[in-house]
Amino acid sequence: MAGSSLRPHVHWAQRHRELYLRVELSDVKNPDISIADNVLRFRAQGHGAKGDNIYEFQIEFLEPVEPKPVCRVTQRQLNITVQKKESSWWERLTKQEKRPLFLAPDFDRWLDESDAEMELKEKEEEKINKMKIESRVPKDPFKHLKKGYLIMYNLVQFLGFSWIFVNMTVRLFILGKDSFYDTFHTIADMMYFCQTLALMEILNSLIGLVRSPLIPAVIQVFGRNFILFVVLGSLEEMQSKAVVFFLFYFWSIIELFRYPYYMLSCMGIEWKPLTWLRYTSWIPLYPLGGLAEAVCLIQSIPIFSETGKFSLGLPNPLNVTIQFSFLLQMYLIALFLGLFVNFRYLYKQRKQHLGPKKRKMK
Q1: 329 and 301 in contact (C-beta within 8 Å)?
Q2: What are 22's strand-pairing partners?
Q3: Where is the CS domain (predicted)?
Q4: Which of 26-35, 129-138, 241-250 is modeled with the greatest confidence?
């Protein structure tokens, strides 16, 4: 590599407020670009007309410019944007009348003064039209109230499920397997509160407070509440089963990521680790939660059959009785269909938030 410094080919163009410089260097390394005393100084290593070398140049501008150039390096060239201090059209780029040999017009971006004025006018008209359109859109007077409600709702749910998770974890470490069998009596009140409050998610989707589709919300909320209130809440025999521990544990872990994610989204904040957890943790946890719900149903079917609870006897010559246990068997099939619907929805959400971004073609 030669030790001498060389000048690269530089192409320039202008608008009323900006100057554009395109430096013909590829594989640029360590660019040093600064503006002082209205003089732009450039020095960088790259591959130009004289091969791989150190290239440098300086330009004293015709009129005052802002001292903060914006540089964008690509594999094939380096682009510099300089803001003029005053909006005007320059007759040339440099203070010296004779154009430097390394400097030439950038015909890809070149406009004469009348074309540039027309372009500027079109941009201003576009900006004015955009402002007019935005001003026509009616402002929601309850926007901040709705946002505050959603933040508080997600915060309360997060605190509730956090209490459940921490309480169950501490009891597990202290009591071991014995904590499995009295989970319902210890945790049920808080779970009742959280799952009753979760009915608001259906209402939020129904009235358009959130953009979440209605069907997945209905499937999850009513599915959980059916297990909690009907199966567990009505059968004392089920309340001491070990499966209740796993059911409540999986439900609470899922919500530890979901509710804080929604709460931060309402504030316009995105924390990437939390986003990843929100759209990844469901992959193992939803099947495990669905399995725990299925086990609850399977274990409760013989009890409902024996007690005849919630069974419906019809007054007819054949003395037909609709057994609630039979309805539970039908619901068990519907449970897995509902899980499939939610899995599909969550998979699409994961692709949308974590999938590769489509690059815009220039």
Answers
A1: yes
A2: 11, 79
A3: 5-94
A4: 241-250
Q: Which helix (H) or strand (E) holds 275?
A: helix 272-278
Lowest model confidence (mean pLDDT) among 109-123, 190-204, 325-339: 109-123
C-alpha 341/C-alpha 346 separation (Å) is 9
Place of tokens 């400097």: 103
Q: Of 163, 171, 229, which is closest to residue 196 (Cα–Cα)?
A: 229
Question: Per-residue pLDDT tens for 33-45?
Answer: 999 999 999 999 9
Q: DSSP assignment, residue 308?
A: -
The reported pTM is 0.61
Contact present, 26 and 76 (Cβ < 8 Å):
yes
Under a CB-based contact definition with an 8 Å cutoff, are residues 27 and 77 in contact? no
Other Cβ atoms within 10 Å of 198 Cβ, number? 19
Q: What share of the chain is helix, strand, coil (3-state, %, to 5)?
A: 55, 20, 25
Rounded to an integer, what distance in angstroms lies between the CA atom of residue 82 and that of residue 65? 7
What is the distance between the alpha carbons of residues 290 and 292, in angstroms, rounded to a whole number?
5
Q: What is the dihedral of CA 35, 36, 39, 42, to 10 degrees?
A: -50
pLDDT digits (tens, 9 = 90+) for 46-55: 998 888 899 9
**Exposed/middle/buried for residue 111 (C-beta within 10 Å: 0-12, 13-18, 19+):** middle
Cα distance between residue 239 and residue 167, in whole Å: 17
CA–CA gap between residue 146 and residue 262 (Å, rounded): 14
Q: What are phi and psi of 27, to 5 degrees?
A: 50, 50
How crowded is residue 295: how many other Cβ atoms within 10 Å of its Cβ?
16
Half-sphere exposure of 156 (CA within 13 A, CB side): 15
Residues identified as active-site: 286, 293
